[in-house]
Design a protein that fits this description.
Strand order of the largest sheet: 1-3-4
Largest sheet: 3 strands, antiparallel
Number of helices: 16
Mean pLDDT: 75
């Protein structure tokens, strides 16, 4: 058999001079020139030559698929409870429970509690009454924090300019087809949504952003910092009306609490499930849960104010008939969809129960 490098372009035998007829395959000729003698032996029988398989490359996406395990319910509940206690301690430490000038109170409450479950008129009476003011301020701070914490939530949390989640996550989520459909967590009306895929996406993106938003949280690269400052400015006009004069460190402490709320938001976001803050009046059998739920137990042991009756706001006030025993100042934390995309049963969905005004103020009904 004649080697291919010795053939002329017209296919003649090697008896013809190759110097007059250069090969059509100069690159091939150079490769053949550099070949070893052993490779020439293989080329003499090209029909039986074998090519060794390519080397296996290491899996470069392994770190993406190996996301951290889910946190325990006890750890999540502990973070949630700790945030509530931080808000309560802040209110006790820095705000007055005596009559104060309340210039522009209606506008300031309306701005702070926009979208809240308690009407502005009722909030005015709760905060104006020195017996319920501490609970009312706790409610306002709680609302500003928690309304910015969840991805699937109708309110300020779905705006990149106010959310406590990474703004880039909210912007990305808004591009999803179901991002404009779900105005809240009403999963029974949106069975077509692949909740399992959404949970997996949240878990993966949280793992990828862990270094930025956990290890280096609120550093110069943290995009949540601007939104925390906006929340501080939203609260300050109202809180400053009742601040103890000359109190040092109030804004620093409040900023720290807002940052703690943002950390909770990222913790909940990274879990493969769908969460809901439930501000409704359903008590989820809190009388039976008081012995096992530290939030309810602590609320009863650490009241926010004096004994209060239902009509403490005054008989002539338009909001005097509000039932303060049903006002929720801290919502229940519910897991409504699990990582597999299934609805969670009623008995398993409540991770932490409500705190009512009656529990923290020892209302006499």
């Amino acid at each position: 058999m004649v080697d291919l490098q010795d053939r002329t372009p017209d296919g003649n035998s090697p008896s013809h001079s190759t110097s007059k007829s250069p090969s059509r395959f100069p690159k091939f000729r150079r490769w053949r020139t550099k070949s070893s003698s052993s490779s020439e032996t293989q080329d003499s029988s090209p029909e039986i030559a074998h090519t060794s398989p390519p080397r296996q490359q290491p899996h470069r996406l392994l770190s993406i698929t190996e996301v951290p395990a889910s946190l325990s319910n006890d750890l999540i509940k502990s973070d949630y409870t700790d945030l509530y206690h931080s808000v309560v301690d802040h209110v006790h430490r820095y705000y007055l429970t005596i009559p104060c000038h309340q210039d522009g109170l209606r506008a300031k409450i309306a701005s702070t509690t926009a979208g809240a479950h308690v009407h502005t008129r009722e909030m005015i009476h709760i905060i104006s009454d020195i017996k319920t003011r501490a609970g009312g301020l706790t409610l306002c701070i709680s609302w500003v924090i928690l309304s910015r914490c969840l991805l699937l939530k109708s309110g300020v949390s779905n705006s990149p300019g106010s959310t406590f989640l990474p703004p880039e996550i909210v912007e990305c989520f808004q591009s999803f087809s179901f991002g404009h459909v779900v105005g809240g967590v009403r999963v029974q009306n949106h069975a077509h949504v692949n909740w399992a895929l959404l949970s997996r996406w949240k878990q993966i993106t949280a793992a990828l952003m862990h270094a930025t938003y956990v290890s280096n949280g609120f550093s110069y690269i943290d995009s949540r910092t601007a939104n925390v400052e906006r929340a501080l400015k939203d609260l300050e006009p109202l809180l400053s009306l009742y601040a103890i004069p000359g109190s040092q460190g109030r804004l620093t402490d409040l900023r720290f609490i807002l940052q703690k709320g943002a950390r909770l938001a990222f913790t909940l976001y990274g879990e493969p499930c769908v969460w809901q803050f439930y501000w409704g009046e359903d008590d989820f059998d809190t009388s039976d849960r008081a012995e096992i739920d530290p939030l309810i137990k602590a609320a009863r042991e650490q009241p926010l104010g004096k004994d209060v009756r239902r009509r403490s706001v005054g008989s002539n006030a338009s909001g005097a008939n509000i039932d303060l025993s049903k006002v929720v100042i801290w919502p229940a934390l519910l897991r409504v969809v699990d990582g597999a995309g299934n609805l969670v049963g009623e008995e398993e969905r409540v991770l932490s129960a409500h705190v009512y005004m009656k529990q923290c103020a020892r209302i006499t009904v």
